[in-house]
Amino acid sequence: MQYRIHDMMKLPEHGHCENCGDPIEFGEYFCSDACSKEYESDVKEAKRLDNRFYILMGIGLVITAAAAFLVKIYIL
User: Fold this and answer.
1) Other beta carbons within 10 Å of 31
2) What's the domain range around 57?
């Protein structure tokens, strides 16, 4: 059976929760305060992990540069 677009029921205008994806009223971002807090917690944790990554990459870059400098001085 083929469905045509005009044969389908139209859904009311709606959005989806940023955290869990449940349908919500258009213009809203979260379905509940619990979802809002969970989303904020997840974003905060992601930022914390990003900062750790940048710090570790910076330390790695400094160590690599120092090792290259020391190799150049003492070995070459």
Assistant:
1) 19
2) 5-74
φ, ψ for residue 74 (rounded to 5)? -95, -25
Number of domains in the chain: 1
3-state secondary structure of 26: coil
From first CA to last CA, the distance across the chain in angstroms is 77
Distance CA 38, CA 30 (A): 10
Tokens linked to 5: 């677009």
Weakly modelled stretches of the chain, pLDDT under 70? 1-9, 76
Cα gap 70→59, rounded to integer Å: 16
Is residue 19 a contact partner of residue 38, using CB atoms and an 8 Å limit? yes
Question: Structure pTM?
Answer: 0.67
